[in-house]
Design brief:
By secondary structure, this protein is mainly alpha-helical. It is built from ten helices and no strands. About 80% of the residues lie in helices and about 0% in strands. Helix 1 packs across helix 6, helix 1 crosses helix 10 and helix 9 runs antiparallel to helix 10.
């Protein structure tokens, strides 16, 4: 893959990270607001939502570098009725618009708790629709390595996994920011972070194991397929075998570090800030693993026909 082709893995991973992170943040918000109140809980999502917005914008800007004429990208919106690419871009722009609107409300205005809740879930709906359209682009009969139901499932799982791994970092960054501003929300923020870490670590284990299972299921399906499908398997297990192995090593180590940080926080009196290095390292390893996974997704496809 050349530099232009690398923009596709980067765009898709950044966009999925933004979608998954907002979804996990909103689940946490929904879970905790009954105990602390929506207004109080909502205040701790300023930094996380801002970073989600920046990530989504960076993703769609990066996607332009895949085009030979980026300034004509607006034309991609003109075929919404029949093109999955047009739909992906439209829904992604809607996602960014809703997250931007939510970010403004988080930083500028107080109140409107119910509207913020609806706005957040609306953004998530557009995000998951973007994710579906993104995966649907690759369900092509001429591409045996892509043209299975495992493609949209794996895209959705990657979105969830990246969200699960990113949110601990975002919450710790919010904790550091709040502490530096002398805000009085440290006590309940710590409870939210430590309480959320437990089930995020558990979900992380399930997702990593499921991704591994889906990968080997895909190999099994391709081995039973035609010559092009079998060629894809050969590429994966021969030429790209080192990257294939490294991806899963990073997935297991990244997930393991997150679990270790949870155990560490239970057995010692670690503060939220003390877990920053663990959370960041885990997130970075899993993100690199998923970038490698997306690279392999593009690298092993073998076209049938013209």
């Amino acid at each position: 893959m050349n530099i232009r082709e690398w923009t596709l893995p980067v765009y898709t991973i950044l966009t999925q990270t933004a979608i998954g992170s907002l979804f996990i943040l909103w689940v946490i918000r929904t879970f905790w607001y009954t105990k602390y109140g929506a207004e109080k809980v909502g205040r701790i999502f300023k930094i996380p939502v801002l970073i989600v917005l920046i990530t989504a914008i960076a993703g769609i800007i990066g996607a332009h570098f895949h085009l030979s004429k980026p300034y004509l990208s607006i034309l991609a919106l003109s075929n919404f009725h029949s093109s999955w690419l047009s739909r992906e871009i439209v829904f992604d722009l809607c996602f960014i618009f809703f997250v931007g609107w939510l970010c403004i409300l988080q930083w500028v205005e107080k109140g409107q708790t119910r509207f913020r809740t609806i706005l957040g879930w609306g953004a998530i709906l557009f995000g998951f629709t973007t994710d579906f359209c993104m995966s649907r682009l690759y369900l092509l009969p001429s591409q045996p390595a892509w043209n299975t139901s495992l493609t949209p499932i794996s895209f959705f799982e990657t979105t969830l996994l990246l969200g699960v791994m990113s949110v601990p970092v975002l919450l710790i960054m919010e904790s550091k920011f709040s502490k530096s501003q002398g805000q009085d929300n440290q006590s309940f923020l710590n409870q939210i972070v430590f309480g959320s870490f437990k089930w995020l670590a558990a979900i992380n284990i399930v997702l990593v194991l499921t991704i591994v299972a889906l990968s080997f299921l895909q190999i099994s399906i391709l081995r039973a397929g035609n010559q092009s499908a079998q060629t894809s398997v050969e590429l994966l297990l021969e030429i790209y075998q080192p990257l294939f192995i490294i991806r899963f090593v990073l997935l297991f180590f990244g997930g393991g570090i997150l679990v270790y940080s949870v155990v560490l926080s239970q057995k010692t009196k670690k503060t939220v800030e003390d877990l920053m290095m663990h959370a960041f390292t885990a997130c970075l390893m899993v993100m690199i693993a998923e970038i490698l996974g997306r690279f392999l997704f593009f690298a092993i496809h073998v076209r049938i026909g013209i």
